[in-house]
Amino acid sequence: MFSAVRRIYLTAYNWTLFFGWLQVFYLAVSTLWNSGHESVYAAVEKPLILAQSAALLEILHSLAGIVRSPVTATLPQVASRLYVTWGILYSFPEIRTHFFVSSLVISWSITEIIRYSFFGLKEAFGSAPSWLLWLRYSTFLMLYPTGITSEVGLIYYALPYLKESGDKFSIRMPNRWNFSFDYYCNAVLVLGFYVPGSPHLYGYMLEQRKKALAKAKTA
């Protein structure tokens, strides 16, 4: 009973997110073609925020054991994307017209269209076509670097606006909690985490690729 409910839930989840990211991709590419990179964020904002925020459930999936992905791999990827989506792009409109927004959104959406369709088919039918498996475990070789570069670039270019914002999202002392938090320094710290975090996650995905493709050859 639990297995059947799990399968139905994950099938619905993956296909819902597939269509969400497909909408993001279509809007991003058509807007980039017709209006230029300056207009991309305005076109994709709502579906992008919805699709990316839904990824919070993937952390819960890992913690609950609904999926096999370790939370150590899921958490940093989801957290970094949510930070860029909400903490940078949504909170600081000044950088929404940067060309990194286009490369970010297109990299994310292609990755997720492939990923969610792959797992959607696996949950619904028990397997996915070999060509889709290859795309699932190969396209990140190019899309992960472009996505990470775009994330880091947007955070970096947002730093002056974070500094100018003063107390926005910051907590100053004295206060009843005797606690302080500086949003600008936090952004610098986040950039620092990308240095060890990005190679670690990339290496993990390379290992997963090797295992998945080797298993497919012997199947």
Automatic annotation (TrEMBL):
<feature type="transmembrane region" description="Helical">
    <location>
        <begin position="183"/>
        <end position="202"/>
    </location>
</feature>
<dbReference type="Pfam" id="PF04387">
    <property type="entry name" value="PTPLA"/>
</dbReference>
<keyword id="KW-0456">Lyase</keyword>
<keyword id="KW-0275">Fatty acid biosynthesis</keyword>
<dbReference type="GO" id="GO:0042761">
    <property type="term" value="P:very long-chain fatty acid biosynthetic process"/>
</dbReference>
<feature type="transmembrane region" description="Helical">
    <location>
        <begin position="12"/>
        <end position="29"/>
    </location>
</feature>
<protein>
    <recommendedName>
        <fullName>Very-long-chain (3R)-3-hydroxyacyl-CoA dehydratase</fullName>
        <ecNumber>4.2.1.134</ecNumber>
    </recommendedName>
</protein>
<dbReference type="GO" id="GO:0030497">
    <property type="term" value="P:fatty acid elongation"/>
</dbReference>
<keyword id="KW-0443">Lipid metabolism</keyword>
<dbReference type="GO" id="GO:0102158">
    <property type="term" value="F:very-long-chain (3R)-3-hydroxyacyl-CoA dehydratase activity"/>
</dbReference>
<keyword id="KW-0812">Transmembrane</keyword>
<comment type="pathway">
    <text>Lipid metabolism; fatty acid biosynthesis.</text>
</comment>
<feature type="transmembrane region" description="Helical">
    <location>
        <begin position="139"/>
        <end position="162"/>
    </location>
</feature>
<keyword id="KW-0472">Membrane</keyword>
<comment type="function">
    <text>Catalyzes the third of the four reactions of the long-chain fatty acids elongation cycle. This endoplasmic reticulum-bound enzymatic process, allows the addition of two carbons to the chain of long- and very long-chain fatty acids/VLCFAs per cycle. This enzyme catalyzes the dehydration of the 3-hydroxyacyl-CoA intermediate into trans-2,3-enoyl-CoA, within each cycle of fatty acid elongation. Thereby, it participates to the production of VLCFAs of different chain lengths that are involved in multiple biological processes as precursors of membrane lipids and lipid mediators.</text>
</comment>
<comment type="similarity">
    <text>Belongs to the very long-chain fatty acids dehydratase HACD family.</text>
</comment>
<keyword id="KW-0444">Lipid biosynthesis</keyword>
<keyword id="KW-0256">Endoplasmic reticulum</keyword>
<dbReference type="InterPro" id="IPR007482">
    <property type="entry name" value="Tyr_Pase-like_PTPLA"/>
</dbReference>
<keyword id="KW-0276">Fatty acid metabolism</keyword>
<keyword id="KW-1133">Transmembrane helix</keyword>
<dbReference type="GO" id="GO:0005789">
    <property type="term" value="C:endoplasmic reticulum membrane"/>
</dbReference>
<dbReference type="GO" id="GO:0030148">
    <property type="term" value="P:sphingolipid biosynthetic process"/>
</dbReference>
